[in-house]
Amino acid sequence: MERHQKLFKTKCSQENYQKLLALNNPALFDFVGEYVQLCNPASVFVRSDSAEDAQYIRDKAKELGEEKQLNIDGHTVHFDGPTDQGRDKQNTKFLLSKSENLGSDINSIVREKGLSEIQALLKGIMSGKEMFVLFLCLGPVNSDFSIYAVQLTDSAYVAHSEDILYRSAYEAFKKKGAEIEFFKFVHSAGKLENSVSKNIDKRRVYIDLSENIAWTTNSQYAGNTVGLKKLALRLAINKASKENWLAEHMFVMGVGGAKNRKTYFTGAFPSACGKTSTCMVEEESIVGDDIAYLRKKNGKVFAVNVERGIFGIIRDVNPQNDPLIWQALTSPGEVIFSNVLVKDRIPYWLDDGKKHPENSTIFPHPNARYTIRLKTLKNCDPKLENPEGVEVKGIIYGGRDSDAWPSVFESFDWNHGVITIAASLESETTAATLGKQGVRKFNPMANLDFLSIPIRRYIQNHLQFVKDLAHPPTIFGVNYFLRDENGNYLSAIEDKRVWLKWMELRVHKEIEAIESPIGFLPRYEDLKRLFKQVLGKDYSERDYQKEFTLRIDANLAKVERIIEIYKTKIPDAPKILFEILEEQKRRLNAARRVNRPY
After folding, report:
1. Do 247-307+384-593 and 309-376 share a fold?
2. Is the pLDDT of residue 210 over 80?
């Protein structure tokens, strides 16, 4: 503190100086001091856990024009620049030494060059602005899962978003003092023009795993700038790899069972494959929609939601598809809309079920978003803030697959599930994606974009994770996009409610299943009963046969495709991966020879 004392006194009010001083952490003072010196803000605001500090940031976002008030109390809207409304994959890079290699799929830059570039971009970038210093926690505070973080930003919108999405942890920093370890994030929106980042050509998102720090310049879009989101996921995957736990791109939800039983599942789905709609099923409970940490304790697996809020795509949210989210977005309370259409202080978005203003030349962006706290949802699980987490009994992986996987199935065991479901996950491109429709994108564990370790090690970590567990979670595959010979979907939107109930029963071994070459399939009599109980409708044997008669040729083609991907792109993948995939191939070929449909 002594080294930076004069600087902090110059930049901070007496109150903010005292808040910083109270933390008694030399490493923290060095971090904040370095970037106050480099970025040269006009002032520094230190965010404590108080309601007054939270209100200061909300008011500042509107005062600076980063957010505008809407017609419902607590609702505001933020606009990013027209070329700053999505994650910048091209300019998101890891800083690595020349000897480090994370794999060909991971974008990187030589550390010395990257540091020099980012330091030059940050020099004086906050002149005339206020720097917000935020103390936050990934996961519940004071938990075995907790990872603490400090975000420096000159954007009140980013600070406001962080406040909704993550737990405030100033008091935890104060209590732990110098012993606390923390992830570090530095962000500047850069020069603004009409309240949006001007110098998009200087947009950079750089990550240094060796120092657990990420920098973002010349961007406002939350996917690039809210450090605790996907930037922190990359840091956490690296940390988890060293410490034998898992940081995953997963929801956490509770599924109701017999005698008021609640069974918790996690689930990973690539974009547009049903992740949010699964964890937001109305009669079940949601712990989290996006990122989970999984740890072992007393021979069991537990998970927490890293976040306490949702930064969600708003497209298709309407009273029919997402009644719970719709209610939160149309009721008083803290909500930030971003990149929607606004007319007379009323927000509109694509497929919202509302009549849009006539003769409008402005349209909502397909990646328009909403930011809310989970506790505003009626189905928010009461264990959201439980420091122990929730016990995970099942893990669900879902892709967009028109011709191979059935609607729901269960792996034979943990290794089989990790290899043939999780590490074989694919998603077909849709008409909403630029380029050719129907192209399969390989996306192991739905986490490929955020890996900070080689795929080989990532898969090995999953295999090793349960080595000492007698009863690891059951792994399931789901596919809501299977089509018939005429191109019609075989699974209705609401059918996932039945698949969840079937998986819940299978976890507890309360129903039998049919053994097939790819895993266990549901029996017709069980689904017939569940469709009647859950949806009040008849499920015909003809529909069952269409959905669960195994498509052997398509599944063989998938296995061969995955083997080829690993042989050509990840030849150093664990040997067991190729062994398990070859075993699946042999089972499918044997079934084809005897013409067994399952």
Report:
1. no
2. yes
Q: What is the DSSP letter of 549?
A: S
Phi, psi values for residue 156, rounded to 5°: -65, -30
| Pick from 198, 193, 217: nearest CA to 206 | 217
Give 5-64+88-243's CATH code, choosing from 3.30.450.40, 3.30.70.120, 3.40.449.10, 3.40.50.620: 3.40.449.10
pLDDT at 321: 85
Q: Which H, E and C letters describe 134-198, residue by residue? A: EEEEECCCCCCCCEEEEEEECCHHHHHHHHHHCEECHHHHHHHHHHCCEEEEEEECCCEECCEEC
The answer to whether the beta carbons of residues 314 and 335 sit under 8 Å apart is no
Per domain, the residue ranges of the chain are 5-64+88-243, 247-307+384-593, 309-376
Look at residue 449 and tell me whether its pLDDT is greater than 60. Answer: yes
Asked about 279 being catalytic, the answer comes back as no
Contact 332, 299 (CB under 8 A): no
Give me the catalytic one of 12, 39, 137, 273.
Answer: 273
Q: Are the beta carbons of 240 and 210 closer than 8 angstroms?
A: no
Q: Give the residue among 319, 316, 320, 288 at the shortest CA–CA distance from 304.
A: 288
User: Of 62, 109, 337, 100, which is closest to residue 215 (Cα–Cα)?
Assistant: 109
Rounded CA separation 130/36 (Å): 10
CA distance 23 to 511: 55
Task: State how far the Cα of 249 lies from the Cα of 197, in Å rounded to an integer.
Answer: 29
Q: Which CATH class is domain 309-376?
A: mainly beta
Nearest CA to 167 out of 288, 36, 17 is that of: 288
Q: What is the mean pLDDT of the segment spanning 66-73?
A: 97
What does the pLDDT look like over 390-435, one tens digit per residue? 999 999 999 999 999 999 999 999 999 999 999 999 999 764 444 5
pLDDT confidence of 132, banded at 50, 70, 90?
very high
Q: What percent of the chain has pLDDT over 90?
A: 90
Which tokens belong to 456?
């080989």
Tens of pLDDT, residues 356-366:
988 766 688 99
Core vs surface per residue 543-566: b (16+ CB within 10 A) or e:
bbebbbebbbeebbebbeebbebb
The yes or no reply on domain 247-307+384-593 and CATH 3.90.228.20 is yes
pLDDT of 106 > 60? The answer is: yes
Structural tokens at position 561: 């495709």
In 3-state terms, the chain is what percent helix, strand and coil (to 5)? 35, 25, 40
Q: How many helices (H) and strands (E) does the chain have?
A: 18, 31
Measured CA to CA, the distance from residue 35 to residue 24 in angstroms comes to 18
Q: One-letter amino acid identity for 427?
A: S
**Helix (H) or strand (E) segment spanning residue 32:** helix 26-39
